């Protein structure tokens, strides 16, 4: 196999196909009901359109000019765009090699390639932004720069640690992670070190350290990479953009190859990815974008829905298609999802889509209040145990939470109830040691075939796999209890089940065919189904769905999270809950606890997002918007009107020592110039730091999410005596005042901060 991006010899091929193996059939992609992954593709172009609803059909047949697809959750967007590409190819309008479909995960790209093969449109390039850019960068680097492409570092955090050491800045583990995230955000927003502080303030980011320190660490990090001749993940995009901008001959070569573009999850595009897309396009407009502003939940990584919402401004003649027929969720689930968005505010809310369920009615969502978090976890485990006893497969149930730190209590509750589970977002399936060892064993057995004594008496593929994996620890019955032994067995059992499904779909399949299938799945990071309840954060659940979903911890301080301060951050939290709700097909359970631990202060209340939606609660009535209905809008000559954000006037902040007007965010928090003398009570500052460390540990969040160092210094200088004085300190805010005010004032008064329930 030639290296990625290099043309194989012989015969010579063009750069865009270098290193790509031939497409093979796969069982890893979802099928239409009653369909088979090995059935013949549609008989012709018109047959590709069969089974599409009117809006999906419009997407599939709108093959010229710019097209914007606004697709709500569960409305079949992937089906629409893959049928669009396949229809164009089968009708002879699009050449497969001229199409580049871009998405955000290897799994989504693999699913797209699989669906296109099933539709008779093999040869279309479906890749992530980074994969497509890396292929181009590897090929063109010798021509544009000379020599070999520098090595890509797997983990940048070590270089950030080295940068901190070189800068004589001490970072603990959490700060190291947070500073690394700030560097990543800076790069995808095309922010250079010198501009970091101003850009962070403008974006409303609360930096984990002084912005000047982060800027210094960022600059040193870049210097170290240059000295070591390495690049990072973000550099792949930055360098590709640089080459396409500077070398018009190379840009022309790329544009001559790719003439038609499709971008999925367009609401998650960063400024850097948008710039790369513009360079790929040049002055052409054969672009189809698909997204949903109401599912924008990654703004902390630089993603912004503005590119989606401004699409008609940039392309006045665009065709806009709205998909609102929800094929995933019951009317009851869809009603709750619509209700959440009906109360939203902001630009994304102004373009919300009102879903219309296409499924039969199901049960109403269940709302449950518990005294404390252990009771909440035990309650969910009991309900899940009852569902399993009633015949519900464990793999069709999920528990979704706001932060990964919440998983431990649910892992324990499920283990105590004897319920198998899998933790999503932890170690990837194909990276697990037992899975790697099983793959080696299966590959060896496939190579030796009948000469392998393990296969004696194994007459078909499933029995061969069971025989091989029995040597790796698989047994017909699962081990008792939970823990590492049970988790290893679950991984091997998933491979056994996959072999049975694979053989059922392809009766003549050999062990070598299965090994090839596993390799393809590993490349796409598409793990086989593990028969266990899924535990996942709301962010990692994006793009997935289950019959039954438990949304837990839906209380103020967790949903919205306590460090969400601005209106934009609060609205993103609402969208995150919307994503969680729309993961459920049939049944939805929402719960919250009044206290963190048994006997703790029962001070929590259900999330404000449920006001007016859960039974017995009062709240703001939903408002109608102009973006709710589905349909098609063709070729507007003028862009739609958007509501500009209201601006509020502010009195200039002045130094309380010298009176100078302050502009630096850090100085504004202290209400004094950095050079002016501090009257901070050192003992009070240390007591506040100790209290903050306890709060951060209890909540599982970085310390700066409680209060930043600057805010603690400001408190120690001001020594507030009541809530009004504390509220005047920048960085406190209403939510933190309600959450931590009593503790902080007690510490300032010389008493113990309390905080017995340590809630977040």
From TrEMBL:
Q: Name one GO molecular function term.
A: helicase activity
Q: Please list the residue ranges that the record marks as compositionally biased, kind Gly residues.
A: 624-633
Annotated signal sequence is: none
Pfam families named among the record's database cross-references: HRDC, UvrD-helicase, UvrD_C
Please list the residues that bind ATP: 71-78
Query: EC top class, in one word?
Result: isomerase
Reactions mediated catalytically: Couples ATP hydrolysis with the unwinding of duplex DNA by translocating in the 3'-5' direction; ATP + H2O = ADP + phosphate + H(+)
Query: HRDC domain: from which residue to which, for each copy?
Result: 678-758
**Region annotation (Disordered) ranges:** 596-648
All copies of domain UvrD-like helicase ATP-binding, residue ranges: 50-330
Q: What family is this?
A: Belongs to the helicase family. UvrD subfamily.
Question: What protein am I looking at?
Answer: DNA 3'-5' helicase
- State the organism named in the record: Streptomyces yaanensis
